[in-house]
Input
Amino acid sequence: MHAFDVLGDPVRRRILELLADGEQPAGALGETVRREFGISQPAVSQHLKVLREHGFTTVRAEGTRRLYAVDPGPLREIDAWLAGFRRFWTPPLTALATELARGRRERRLRADNTDERTET
Output
């Protein structure tokens, strides 16, 4: 299964989003996902298994609990693949940053001019 196939499922993407905040027990992940997606506990377990088997998560035992965490390896691979496409959105974002800076500068100049007029 390709990394994008793994992440193509909204439940698995949501699990990774939840894990982005840090390690979590399987039970807590299951409760959130079941509530948001209306799926069974065995279905949540299957999604966790897919993420684990394809290297997106790690799991460690702590007593009877299973704690899941993000494994960044596959995400780095996706990021590297996306690098070839960043040119499609990076220049427009750079242009947006320039325009935002220009707007801040203009507001600052207007505020300075207003301050000068009220002082005289």
User: Anything to note?
Assistant: The longest strand covers residues 57-62.
